[in-house]
Amino acid sequence: MFYLAKTDPQIADIIEKERLRQQNGLELIASENLVSRAVLEAMGSVMTNKYAEGYPGKRYYGGCEFYDIAENLARDRLKKLFGAQHANVQPHSGTQANMAVYFAFMKLGEGLMSMKLSQGGHLSHGSPVSFTGHFYNVTQYSLDPKTEMLDYGMVGELAKKEKPKIIVCGASAYPRTIDFKAFQEIADDVGAYCMADIAHIAGLCATGVHPTSVGVTNFTTTTSHKTLRGPRGGAIMCNTEYAQAIDKAVFPGMQGGPLMHTITAKAVCFEEALRPSFKEYNRQIVKNAKVLAETLMDCGLRLVSGGTDNHLMLIDLIGQGITGLEAETALGKAGITANKNTIPNETKSPFVTSGLRLGTPVVTSRGMKEEHMRQIGTWIATVVKDIHNEAAIKDVKTKVTAMAGKFPLYPE
Ligand SMILES: *Cc1c(COP(=O)(O)O)cnc(C)c1O
User: Does residue 210 belong to any structural domain of this protein?
Assistant: First the structure.
């Protein structure tokens, strides 16, 4: 930041303040992570300077010889990581990875089937406020109201009735294991394609901590910035038979020049993810989530579905008589960042909600273990159960800052 501080002190100051916010607090947003220094370096490199429309070996601009090598490395490493036949690393985001699959295999007005947003699905899976809700004929499945888990029988019945073109599985706020094979079988039964969106759990899938969708469902889309711990971006994997259609849908179908600094950083991230330590990291994410969940339940809080199998959990705050928004705000004052989230059968607006989503990828990246999760869980329960007690919140904040101080974002 030495140079920027001289040329644009205003922005340098903002970046430093954000760095301190990240350093001094505990980030429990389930969709976030903390990238390595190597990924940061690649992102902030000269690889941002050039246009590279097209694909390696077939560019529309001269001078792309090194970009070609970087993109090929990103593709090959991602293929190796997941055992995929084909990979496209150009989507700017997870939403655009999904968009490319829809554009490649579904005409406007055709049927898209997915999990309801309020039950854990994603905006790009057919929400009325997303392009997907405008372009496609959307049918959505819910969770079993008793278990708050997926009911594959119910999904299959709905698919038989609606005969969608693409069935989407994968979610943003589902704490349980997803049976990708069951989804593909449901799709096969009704002549539909199956797309698994593993944006949240990609790291878990890559390391066998959660069953993978690659080679099981027709298409897999992901982000690179959640449990994969890379730069913000998207990617698509599929078998060779779909490769050409997917590549054409990404470019020139819906994007212009790829973000080559991001693709270069994706290559760095995928190499890191191929190391044995990344498997250990993902195992620890889940171990940490289990302990955090158990601690919260021991403190008398109810978790949706009664626990977690992955990196995230949802607290149902109805029994506490407070909203997700109130919990998010109070925890924020205590230095704990989390997000309000709808829960199954939500009655409040998405800006208020009755739930709170928590995830362990960031704190695990900082090196925190089970013992720290027990402390964090107790602090969260203290705040949530006595939300107007400013003295207690202040006391938690002091403890949070002290713990965060022991885990530097980037140790020397
Ligand atoms: C995060 C997420 C995405 C993609 O998000 P972007 O913000 O567009 O990168 C897509 N699908 C699911 C299920 C997600 O959780």
Answer: yes
Question: Tens digit of pLDDT for each residue in 311-368?
Answer: 999 999 999 999 999 999 999 999 999 999 999 989 999 999 999 999 999 999 999 9
What is the whole-number distance in angstroms between the Cα of residue 94 and the centre of ligand 1?
Answer: 5
Residue nearest (by alpha carbon) to ligand 1 atom 5:
94
Distance CA 125, CA 111 (A): 12
pTM for the complete prediction?
A: 0.97
Query: Domain range spanning residue 189?
Result: 41-273
- Residue 356 CA to ligand 1 center (angstroms) comes to 18
- pLDDT score recorded for residue 1: 61
Q: Does residue 257 sit in the same domain as residue 302?
A: no
Pairing of strands 234-238, 219-223: antiparallel
Same domain, 253 and 126: yes
Known catalytic residue at 53: yes
Domain count, the chain: 2
- C-alpha–C-alpha distance, residues 376 and 406, integer Å: 14
User: pLDDT tens, 160-182?
Assistant: 999 999 999 999 999 999 999 99
Distances (CA, A) of 182 to 60, 187, 194, 207, 216: 42, 9, 10, 21, 10
What atom in ligand 1 is closest to the CA of residue 172?
15
Confirm whether 8 is a catalytic residue: no
88 Cβ contact partners less than 8 Å away, ≥ 6 residues apart: 75, 100, 235, 236, 237, 246, 247, 250
- Of the candidates 51, 55, 370, 378, the residue annotated as catalytic is 51
Nearest residue (CA) to ligand 1, atom 2? 199
Residue nearest to atom 3 of ligand 1 (CA): 94
Residue 238's SS3 state is strand
Question: Residue 219 contacts by C-beta under 8 Å, 6 or more apart in sequence?
Answer: 101, 105, 193, 194, 195, 196, 236, 237, 238, 242, 246
Mutate to test the pocket of ligand 1, among 172, 204, 227, 262 (most ligand atoms within 8 A of CB): 172
Same domain, 268 and 290: no
Does the beta carbon of 288 sit less than 6 angstroms from any atom of ligand 1? no
Pocket test for ligand 1, best of 197, 225, 226, 228 (most atoms within 8 A of CB): 197
Atom of ligand 1 nearest to the CA of 232: 9
